[in-house]
Here is the input.
Amino acid sequence: DKHNTVIIEQSSDQVLFQRSLDATKYYVSIKWDGEAEIEQIKKHKYLLNIKSGDKFKFVTPFSQGTKIDYLLDVEETFRLSKKHWINFWESGGAIDLSESSNPQAKELERRIVLSRYLTAIQCAGSLPPSETGLTCNSWYGKFHLEMNWWHGVNFVL
Here is the structure.
């Protein structure tokens, strides 16, 4: 196997995974409020089993190369996330096409908003993302820059 997934820390309300791919290490943690436990289903697949209740809250931070030493609780994570997204949507510009007679104006507005959102979530790192963004890993966790110019040149317009 070219990669490895192991639990390196675990308690009653959180777990820390280490993913290794060659020399690259990733850390993913899950911290939850409520009664639950982690179960390994397959070699790289784990299930968070909720033991009670009809609602369940959890946070899942990710770190590349540095072990996650401090986890915010669920409510603090929600508060900071809400603050971030309010600031994001209330800053920057927008194009209002509501008075356009073109039948495609509403779709263009939708795509502009979607593009802004996707750029925010897919370009969140310190390095430019791969062609697939951060949603999937088409380059096996390795940084590459050869196509970035083509994918970003439209933002100067």
Summary: The mean pLDDT is 84. The longest strand covers residues 24-33.
